[in-house]
Structures are given as structure tokens and as C-alpha cells.
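Title: Prediction job returns without error message
Component: structure pipeline
Severity: low
Priority: P3
Assignee: unassigned

Description:
Job completed but the reporter wants confirmation the result is attached to the right record. Sequence as submitted:
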Amino acid sequence: MVETGSMDHPSELPDALAAARARYADERAKRIRPEGNAQYSGLEGRFAEFDTDPYVEPGFTREPVVEETLALIVGGGFAGMLTAIELTRYGIRDFRIVEKAGDFGGTWYWNRYPGCMCDVESYTYLPLLEETGYMPTEKYASAPEIFSYCQLLGRHFDLYPNALFQTEIADAVWDQDDGRWLITTTRNDQIRAKFFVTAGGILHKAKLPGIPGIETFAGEAFHTSRWDYGYTGGSPTSPMDGLADKRVGIVGTGATAIQAVPKLAASAKELFVFQRTPSAVGVRNNGPTDEEWFKSLKPGWQEERLVNFTKAVTGVKPEVDLVADGWTEVMWENTQRPTDSDEERLELELSDFETMEKLRRRVDEIIEDPATAESLKPWYGKHCKRVAFHDDYLPAFNRPNVHLVDTQGRGIEAITPNGAVFDGTEYELDCLVFASGFEVTTDLDHRLGFDPAGRDGVRLSQRWHDGAHSLHGILSAEFPNMMMLGIVQAGFGTNFVHFLSKSAAHVGWLINECEQREIATIEADPPAEEDWLMVLYGVAGGIADYSLTCTPGYYNSEGSRGPKAARNLVYAGSLLDYSGYLERWREDGSMPGTVVSH
């Protein structure tokens, strides 16, 4: 684990730390843009096709569904599936899942780019392994395997009969007289539901950089979540032979690019990687699952491992590190936690600095060209951006056909019909790949693709005009029986599926409990929403100073400030602490902070 003071020259540490502080501030200043999230554009115009499904046969039709159901769940990724599984455990099968894609999987349905895999070990990331009896093939499962596992969950828990695929919500309106949600879809379905659950996910709505001229590019262009193998050749598991004579540009150097760049480097005639801010990249060290070890695991092993991992990456420091990978090493010390003394604050800063120094030294150890190495070094704290772990990304820049275009935080200046322009140089390209990520902290109604209407026809965007209002991020006043699974005013975690499982368990409990108690409606009480916001502020206050040193990114809404950003925050503490709030709330039994009717 990372230990403060273990550097080769401890006496030099204060000077090095002072230099790092200055460098962090410089790097942050390069990325600050007043438009915040508005620097990205939606999938519109020429790029509207990026929001369609390339994995289904065109021309699908079916008869509209007209029905009443107990619960309608929006989304067939892990959030929606886990919620449906929780209801099944309560003996509730009267639910409907509405999913835009052609199958279950969520982000693992859409993301099929080369090299795609999870950066959290599969033994903790894939849920319900003991229930399904499934053994992941590798420590870090690939996207095709995770997608297949989602399908397995759908079969194992018999979710397919309850799903409407290739279907989007057109509108959702609360009918006060009937006490039901009226949901209409793009397939002309009319479904009445007592409970309405939004589980739309955070990694499904792609975003594009708002680069001038982006629509004029004459070559091939696509987002990584809509990878065009028809153009590149190959598949997620085979080489892209269609790129052998192509000059390819990839925009972005975040988690997606870390995985795609090595595959593109091995296939393209030339690859240009356009970088604003480099990722911190540690060792992945993937490998096949030891079957004997897996078979030796005792009942209850996965929950134990889940809790152990979450403790290890949130500074709790369990006696035994069961996962023992890059995540638990880098995040063993929670260096953004609040402190009571300047001495302790400095100690945490030194620990954080050394962790990042190790990652920066790794760049020097791998990259042959000194200038390229300097450009690939991350100059920010370890909690500022999601650390990446990969063994082939950095070596790819030693290939003669790979060129790093370091834009010094500014990004590409313009796109022309022929390519991309930076600092007066036009890079001619045959293909542009946008590894520009997804909408994570934008307004919920925008990410969902519809704007629910609650009591008296008030839309969610109206009630949340100044930011989110919720209890635990799940219930909201004026929206009876609507339950939300997402990160806004809710939890978060390195292992996102662990968070989703806790939220799904809470929603399943709520629906079953309302049925058992013959509760007609439940919603948050406005004063309780403000009390919860104060809890969120209290936890976030501990990391405020740390966040001020961070370069903009999706963690901090691209540095956005204002009333919405102030309310649209996540529970910044440990996922275990957040789930503890939910567990204690359920144990109370009185449903505090809610308004119910019978």
C-alpha cells in the first residue's frame, strides 16, 4: 500500500510538493471553460444516427401494448434488471421493463468498441454470481462477456417476458384521480402503472465535443458507443483489418480511449490521439480465473468481497485486502477526507502526491520519447479523475504510427472536411473517433429523454429548475410513486454496480412495503428534501478544498458552478455510509421524511 515518506529522497519532498501544487494549478487553469457542460453537444443533426441502435435489424414493428401494471421500470441495464430482480424476490411479477436497446445490458449493450472491458474486477462487479453460479473467465471481464452475463440474468430471473425492447418513453404523466402513471411510448403503447421507476443509467447518452466545424468532416466519424465495424472491419474480438490504409484520429484520452487506443494503434496506418488532459494509468495485470480458487469460495463470499473492496478504496483499510489490485493500492488512503490539523492535512497531501508520482514515474519507465512522456503525465490529485488501469495503453505511444497531439488542455480548435486543426496545423484524417464520454451530471430529464409530469402537471424540469430536490436521491415531492435510480443526490462508488444493487434493494423494498401496508401514494416531504441536502453538503464539505485543485471533468461537472451544480451533487462519502442511511431508514419503519396516502 502507499505509505507516506517512502520516496527515495524524503528531504526533497516539500520542494517537490510545492512544485506539484503549482503544476496542478496550471493544468487546472488550462481546462477551465466558462460554458462548463455546455462545451459538449448532443447527438443531433448529422450525428442523430449516433443515438440509434446499429445492433438490431431495421424495420422492427409490433402491436401497441395497452395494459395496467404495478410497476414500470425505465431501463434494462443493471439498475433496471436489479430492481426487477428485487421485485421478483418479493414475489412481485406484475412489472414491465421498457428499454431503448434491443436487449438487456445497458452500457454493456451499447459499448462494443475494441478493447472494451470493466476496470473493476469481475468477481465484485458482476452481481449475483452466487445465485447464477457463473464463473467469470477473467479477473477483468470484457464487454462481450458482461453483455452475455446480462442476458444470462435476464434468462435466470425470467425477465424477458416482462420487457419491451426497442421502445422509448414518449411521456409519463401522473393521473391524480386514478392514482396511476400514464406512460406512452414511441411504439404507441399506453401503460398505466402505480409505481414508476427511472433507471436510465449514466453511461448511455453519448456526448460530442462542441468543436467548430464538427459537422463538416467528410470522412467517417462515429462515437465509441456506436462503433462502426462495417468501416473498421473486425469485431470486439478480432483485428480491424479495414484500417490498414487509414489515418485515424481519436478525440479524448479518458477511460474509453485508454482501452481503444491500443487496438487502433495495432490496426491503423496512422493514429493521432488528441488529448486535453492525460489520464493516470496504473497496472491492470489481467488474467484468467483460477477455477480451483473460484470453486473453493464459501457461501456469502461475494458480499464479503464487495464490502471489503469498497472499504479498501474509501480509506477504511480492512485488515485483509481481498482484491489487492491497482484500485485498492491507489485508493487505500482517502486523501480527500476532512482533517482536524494542518499536520494531518499535509500528511494526506504528501500521500496523494506520492501515489501520483508513482503513476508519473511509470510513464517515464515506459515511454521512450521524453517529450511524449512529459505530455502523458497526469498533474492532478488521485481523486480528481477516475484512475485508469491498463498494460497496453502507454506502450502504444512507442509505436512509430502513433502520434500524441497534446492540445495543452484546450482541445481541437476546429474540424474541417479533411481533418482536425490544432495550433494552426491541420491533421488530415480518414476517420474520426469520438471517445468523448457520456452525459453524467446533466439534467435528469435530458438524460432520460422525457420530462415526467407530476401532480398538477408540473414537469420535473420545472420543479428541479434550480437543481434536484429529493430524499436519498430516490423520492421527490410532487411526483407520487416515482422512484429514481441514479447518482444525483444519491450514492456513488468505484464499483458502480454495488451502488446500483443497494439502490435497487431500496426501491424493491419501497414498492413491496407500500403494497403490504396498502399505501396508495408515497413521495418525499419538501422539508425532508432540504434536510437530505444538508446531509449531502455536510459530507461534501470535507472534500471541497480538495476539489478546488482538480482539473475540470465529469466528476465536477466540468467545473460548473451555480445553483444546479450545488444541488446536483452526489453523496461524496463511502457507498457503505450512503447505503447505511437507506438501511436505517427502512429499519425505522415509519418512512420518515415522506408523505403517504391510503
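Comment from assignee: result matches the submitted record. The two ends are 54 Å apart (CA to CA).
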